[in-house]
Amino acid sequence: MSFSSQENFSIYEIEVWRNSFSLRLLQNSFENMHQYFSGLSKPIECAETPPGAMYCDDDFYQSLHEKVFMPNYFWLGHISDFSEEKNVFPLTALPGSLNEPLVLVRNKLKEFTLMSNVCTHRAARIVSEPSQLRRLICPYHGRRWDLEGSFQFMPGFESAKDFPRECDHLINHRILNWKGLLFGKLAGPEFTPKLRLLFEIMDFFPLEEIMAQKEAPVTEYTIPVNWALYCENYLEGFHIPFVHPGLNEALDISEYPVETADRVILQTGIADKNTGCFDLPEGHRDFGKRVGAYYFFLFPGLMLNFYPWGLSVNEVLPVSVKSTVIRYSTYLLPGLVKSGSAGAALEQVEFEDQAVVQKVQDSIGSRFYPGGRYSPKHEKGVYYFHQFLADCFN
Ligand code: FES
Ligand SMILES: [Fe+2]
Predict the structure, then answer these.
(1) Which ligand sits closest to the CA of 145?
(2) d(Cα 180, Cα 221) in Å, to the nearest integer?
């Protein structure tokens, strides 16, 4: 059917055609999504990685926002990041992709609430800097809420009917505070995915005591790569002997266990004899082992790297299909420094990773790369990551 022939059809017929056309488009995009993951419905020994086209597909990238980023955890910070002198802190969820304006509120009991920072009148940003407040007041026309987001007052609306409505309160979002680590989530059921693996393994670690490193607590890198390529590289230690000669000396790569539960992937770095390791308490499941680092990946793009000296948080912040910001935040235990352990030369390792991932980005769109296979021994983490991604579209 050509557009010029449409005048011969009734309105009803055009409507039917339009509907079937949009249905076809929907079906096509649905089939395309699944096409990317068709090699994943098998055990790792037979599975195939997604094709290179997935990493260059702008429509697929856009669909990740609702399907992948909204219903999973993102990093809000450590409690020590939020000054005791203030109680209200504006934040942005996944700057560069979701860009969702939020406000974090700490009450007198030191409990946190995470809310929308967008006025329910005409969408002005309500809080623009960390403040000490008794209520929230929109700077545009003066709408007010209490510190839990309940609507209180709006000038000029005395004769408005059916007001305030439920949607005039500020939406409260999911927030999880575990030992001072704060995570947010904008959609999906409460308390899922559970983070049991993280809770079980790191319960011994005094996370409430860590503090942001004094010098350069946060570092950001913008790299011209697809976010998923960066995550995949993080999720395997296979490349360590080839790409990170320094790190290779600090870790015993013959042992590099990878496990998963609840959309969390854990890689355990076993330290060699000369490298610092955790003092694990009796009763810990790894008691007696020389663990130099626990690398936790919280799907889709949050990396919590625990070392004997503290915690390094890497947030993977997608900006476009071919651009990603990596934000590093470093927290130290009191009196400790980053030395003599697997995480001491983080910057060097980061640059080596960025360089190799950029090489992959340059060739991932090749017409002659249909996708690859997984090493069952070394690439379980990458396989799990792709499984979680596929799961979001099923
Ligand atoms: S936009 Fe907030 S009161 Fe009008
Ligand atoms: Fe690496």
Answers:
(1) 1
(2) 26
